[in-house]
Amino acid sequence: MPTVLIIDDNAAVAMALDVLFSLHDIATLRALSPAEGLDLLAREPIDLVIQDMNFTADTTSGEEGVALFRAIRARHPDLPVILLTAWTHLDAAVDLVKAGAADYLPKPWNDERLLASVSNLIELGQANRALRSRLQHERKARLALEQNFDLRGLVWQDPATERVLHLACQVARADVPVLITGPNGAGKERIADIIKANSQVADGPFVVLNCGALPSELIEAELFGADAGAYTGASKAREGKFEAANGGTLFLDEIGNLPLAGQMKLLRVLETGRFERLGSNRERQVRVRVISATNADLGAMIRAGTFREDLFYRLNVIELRLPPLGARPGDILPLARSFLAAGKALHPASEAALMAYPWPGNVRELKNVMARASLLSHGDTVMVADLGLPAASTPAPVSGQEAEPDRAALVAALSRAGGVVAQAAADLGLSRQALYRRMERLGIARP
Fold first, then answer.
1. Rg value, the chain, Cα
2. For burial by CB atoms within 10 Å, which of 4, 303, 368, 437 has the most?
């Protein structure tokens, strides 16, 4: 149950407020003087303060209330305070609201307005405390990751990325294959590099093969090598990626593009560590940690008969699912700043535009956008026009009405509010219920 502290020298006022709040499941504590109120604040958990502005008989200046408010603000900078007085001085009210007072109400007060203000402030305060607790937890988790593991200079801030990193570092030292799934350009190779850097073969080679960048007839030769004369143009023996990665890590990107014949040989290497070069009958032995990645639906490929089910289960001992950049909004601005040229900064409107854009090309697209903006921007500040982002394809608002926020706007608002729905709703000019309805309709998970 939330608790309100009432600081008022009039016991009748405190009693009336006590009765009003008790009918709405709000507990109260009462203090008759500023000193008593500050003492209670030091000893008790308080969600909100309602304070009088005058405590001495025949005093109407409000100076005592101003001093009390400043003392509360100095000791408890985030605690909401409502000012209540029979002597309303507009200038004093404006000054104190600017200094952080949550509301300023005259005596006698309107019960409905006071209850609405108290309820909203208590809810907002609870949301802010929950946000601070979550951010503190995230900072501790981030610090632990950075202190205990080599993250290869990765720039990140979103909790979704943290979960992937935590699992990647947790399994890095286990000698088992890892499959990283996610869309193109999301950063799968960076995750593979982090796994290698924290593995038992961190000092070994890190060899990369993009299975989607080669014709299918050459992939086997790239993987396993070939003897001279094994195929047209093979004038001399060549070493394959498995031999080059011996004692280290082999990263197979776009594993779904590996032809069935190569899949069968890869399965044998994973199970025995043995293989033959193309055109050779001599077995070779290697010890290689295999990390693979794909943006394909391997389950659908298995059903279609284009990917071996036994190879899938061998590769998929540990699966890391890297979300698209649009689902990791906390990463967008830190990454954007890291990609900017030295001495450049983002205008606030540019930051909002970056947060609202869905990033179908993921981190790779963001990097290209920031490189272009760094070149085209005049001066030290990158403006929205410098980004060159496509215009939002949203219908124009009906005259006299506000535009309906789209999915990108909702995600951006939730990100700016740290997942606090009440704050995101206020930012969008919606009620919490209206925001929840839109989140459900657009498939946005609740924080």
1. 31
2. 4
pTM of the model: 0.66
Residue 433 and residue 118: Cα distance in Å, rounded? 19
270 CB contacts (<8 Å, ≥6 apart)? 177, 290, 311, 314, 315
Neighbouring C-beta atoms of residue 429, cutoff 10 Å: 10
What is the C-alpha separation between 256 and 298, in angstroms, rounded? 7
Q: How far apart are CA 248 and CA 369, in angstroms?
A: 35
Q: How far apart are the first and last CA of the chain?
A: 23
Question: Closest by alpha carbon to 434, among 443, 445, 421?
Answer: 421
Tokens of residue 34, six digits: 């500023």
Per-10-residue mean pLDDT, the chain, length 447 = 90 90 92 93 92 78 84 88 72 67 80 88 82 82 91 92 94 93 94 96 94 80 83 77 95 92 89 87 91 94 94 94 94 96 92 93 95 93 92 41 66 74 75 76 71
CB 62 within 8 A of CB 37: no
Strand partners, 393: none
Sign of CA dihedral 59, 62, 65, 66: negative
